[in-house]
Amino acid sequence: MPLNLTNRLNSSLERILPEQRLFLRSDDATRFVRLRPITQLLGISGLTVGFGWMLVASSILVIDAISSGGGRDQVMRAQSAFEERLDQLSAERDARAAEALAAQNRFAIALDQVSEMQSKLLSSEERRRELETGLNVVQSTLRDAMSERDDAQRIANAADAGGADAAPDRAQEVSVALDILSGELRNAAAERGEALQQAEAARIAVANLETQRDEIIARNDQILTQLEDAVAISVKPLDEVFRSVGMNPDDVLRTIRSGYSGQGGPLTPMAHSTRGDASLSQGETKANQIIVTLDQMNTYRIAIEKLPLAMPVKSSFRYTSGFGRRWGRMHEGVDMAGPVGTPIYAPGDGVVSFAGRQSGYGNLIKIQHELGVETRYGHLSRIRVKSGQRVSQGDLIGDMGNTGRSTGPHLHYEVRMKGRAVDPMSFIKAASNVQ
């Protein structure tokens, strides 16, 4: 800076910042340091910038701490909501199953009653036919008897005096036979009327039972439709969880089912029913579809329990580096900074595949989870698990540190799927979709 410009600046600042002198006295001499206005201005500016930088850095730390705490609370709330939703669906499924079973029992009883009434109706019809046959026989016999009576009367009129004594006996026999036939006819007519009444009552009962059966079928169909809609809506968020972390839901379902495929038990011959019904077949199809969807939802729940969706750090921390390119190279995880010794927890069930020191990572733990997922925890100050050890979600596995290639204490957290590094934040955020 030219001398004249310096002098002009000092002259301008003299009124605000007068020149100060700092005296330094020793035993044999006294010296002083002259603080010109420009020097004082530079010192005050440096102090102001430093204080401002300290305020900004403190604000960033506080905001990061608050946001990280809110993220953990959101994940915990999402997990709690998911479990509560599963419990509600299980209770609703049990209630619907109980209603369906009760309706099926009522329908079976109604079918038995219909079958019994049909049997009675058939018996009544057979009895009526027998009575009609008997009536025809009686009428034929009556006609024969009347013909014989007429013949007997003609014979009696044409007979001589010697045969007059035998005619009254023959007429008496015919009269007795007619009385017997008349009584049989009256009894047959009464039984026929009673049989017709019973048949009509049976037909009315069958019609009522058919109406009740139709109402039961309609109610069952409504229940099954509501339950089918409920489970279909509940499966969609679970499907999105796996898609958000880059997994194919169909592959996940096949993998889980291959590990949960046990069957057994004695077998008995299959019984075939001769009473079919198209509505019942349709209801059974819906029920089977609901069972399939519930099995899919339960399989998703098992898969979610096996994924590392929990946070490895539960204490206060701040994200200092994300997943992606950094300084011209790929950073294959996220960095969570905190004090040395901060506990590190397993975010999901798995088996420790490596626990030791590795170049760049420092003290490193690798956990192999199911579905081809692996997690890594680098720069640890202490390792609390051994290779081959099985851990569960929430188990303490190590302490945060500053080992390996690290500029400060933090956790380097990686998630790999079939050997390929993926963004761990996709797993952390996936839990928010399960509600």
What's the SSE pattern? HEEHHHHEEEEEEEEEEEEH
Mean pLDDT: 76
For the largest beta-sheet, the strand count, sense and barrel status come to: 10 strands, antiparallel
Q: Radius of gyration in whole Å, from Cα?
A: 50 Å
Number of helices: 6
Look at the helices and sheets and give the structural class: alpha+beta
Strand fraction equals 15-25%
Overall 3D geometry?
rod-shaped
Could you estimate the helical fraction of the residues in percent? 55-70%
What are the low-pLDDT stretches, counting only 5+ consecutive residues below 50? none
Number of DSSP strand runs: 14
**Span from first to last CA?**
67 Å
Protein described:
This protein is an alpha+beta fold. It is 60% helix and 17% strand. It contains six helices and 14 strands. It has helices at 3-13, 37-158, 166-244, 249-259, 278-306, 424-430; strands at 20-25, 30-35, 318-321, 324-326, 329-331, 334-337, 343-345, 350-358, 362-368, 373-383, 390-391, 396-400, 410-417, 420-422. Strands 3, 6, 7, 8, 9, 10, 11, 12, 13 and 14 form a ten-stranded antiparallel β-sheet that branches. It has a two-stranded antiparallel sheet with strand order 1-2. The longest helix is centred in the N-terminal third of the chain and has 122 residues, at 37-158.
